[in-house]
Design goal:
The chain has about 210 residues and is an alpha+beta fold. The strands form two sheets. A five-stranded mixed beta sheet has the order 2-4-5-7-6, covered by helices on one side. It has a two-stranded antiparallel sheet with strand order 1-3. The mean pLDDT is about 90. The structure holds adenosine-5'-triphosphate (ATP) and magnesium ion.
Length: about 210
Amino acid sequence: MKLGCSEAIAQGNLKRSLLNHYTELASEGTQLILSNLERAAELVHSFKQVAVDQTQSELRFFDVRHYLEEVMLSLSPQLRQTSHAWFITGDESIMIQSYPGLLAQILTNLVTNSLLHGYGPGEAGKLSLHLGLEAGQLLLLYRDDGQGIPLVDQPRIFEPFFTTARDRGGTGLGLSILYNLVVQNLKGEITLQSQPGEGVQFKILLPLEQG
Ligand SMILES: Nc1ncnc2c1ncn2[C@@H]1O[C@H](COP(=O)(O)OP(=O)(O)OP(=O)(O)O)[C@@H](O)[C@H]1O
Ligand SMILES: [Mg+2]
């Protein structure tokens, strides 16, 4: 049976090769712990970010299209590294009384997902957001024309920690946070309407006024 390092030390026969092997293992282990800790720290940071946005986001009366165009512009640096095109269509001037920071977070999570999951490297996609009114509510239709979500995954995408991109740094929290923002914070609804191979379409309905 191979001796462990501490047994070898206890028995006074520690060999250079065993010590080298042990040092390698220890350094790999430390690397692993460190990178997991870094990911945990990023997670906590993003949780805090959402919490901060929620509390700092004041209730305001604002022009949705104008505001969301600014959000898209603020995402431009990420988009510029790709060949994707984006556009916002629909009603020019819908005024709502709501929490702009939360809407920004919602759109950011949708766009980030399109970039991470929708397309292969170098592919040029179309990301679009359509604004309108439906049954006295604000309608947001977000679409991309990427690879879409397989039918088997569709029922799970809003679950916390469901991700198909764990190997690329996905945590599976983006859509569950988004769901909570829409349903709990803003008292709205969100549904995924997506045919595999045809990109995604999320339909979001939000009240025009927050109580
Ligand atoms: N636009 C999209 N195109 C294709 N698949 C998507 C898209 N948006 C979400 N998905 C699928 O839904 C899953 C859950 O998304 P979610 O945002 O919750 O997690 P994530 O993006 O994997 O990780 P995180 O957002 O925490 O970094 C993704 O892993 C992916 O499988
Ligand atoms: Mg995501």
